[in-house]
Amino acid sequence: MSTSTQQGPSAATEPDSDRMVVAVDGPSGSGKSSVCRAAAARLGAAYLDTGAMYRAATWYCVQQNVALRDEDAVAVAVEELPLNISTDPQHQIITVGETDVTAEIRAPQISEKVSDVATNRKARQVLIGAQRRIIDQAGFIVAEGRDITTVVAPDAQVRVLLTASAEARLRRRGAQLGDGQSAEALKRQVLDRDRRDSATTNFTEAADGVAVLDSSELTFDETVDSLIGRVESVQETAADGL
């Protein structure tokens, strides 16, 4: 897999022994991307949307006419994927080769197919390796995705499961996608996708050492503040230990 990044504000060229990794996972529609992007911007950290990598891989497979249920063919396509993903929280651009796919990978047709790649164990290993390399090079990064706290970055200093009620998640995803999405389509993209993806990843229950942040009754700003508060608490504890 050919992966490059447009670096975020604190990206480093070499792995940093004093790195700070903030790992956030959770179900569809919980607000991971928007909350983590805002928190990273305020903290001056890089930002990684691992879900966008799966979406870009799905887009690429569709463009290459790869049968998504063919595990080996998908894995080969992901190995060949020429992906560039921004780690700047204020300027997110995702390209595949020379094509800007930032908007296209959020289309409903990609949302309904991405589970075929996300549950492909061979493809996952390729993508997880790429995600770890990006995190290791970043220095200070907020990374979010379904298995980020348990598989990709289990050693992160801050690990949070960001969750919300099914009603809140459906409402938020509907607002994100705008008019034109039926209730059934939203259910397929949120609840049904969670059910399929949970076959390979546990993102509904917090693993040991992972804090739960339930945003069902919180505003967006309150959720961002809560996440930042957890990061700053860890930073203060680390500083006191010096």
Automatic annotation (TrEMBL):
Cellular compartment(s): Cytoplasm
Keyword tRNA-binding: no
GO cellular component: cytoplasm
E.C. designation(s): 2.7.4.25
Pfam families xref list: Cytidylate_kin
Subcellular location, principal: cytoplasm
Source taxon at top rank: Bacteria
Chain ranges of the Cytidylate kinase domain: 22-231
Record field: catalytic activity: CMP + ATP = CDP + ADP; dCMP + ATP = dCDP + ADP
Enzyme type, top EC level: transferase
GO molecular function: ATP binding; dCMP kinase activity
Name this polypeptide is given: Cytidylate kinase
Highest classification ranks of the organism: Bacteria, Bacillati, Actinomycetota, Actinomycetes, Micrococcales
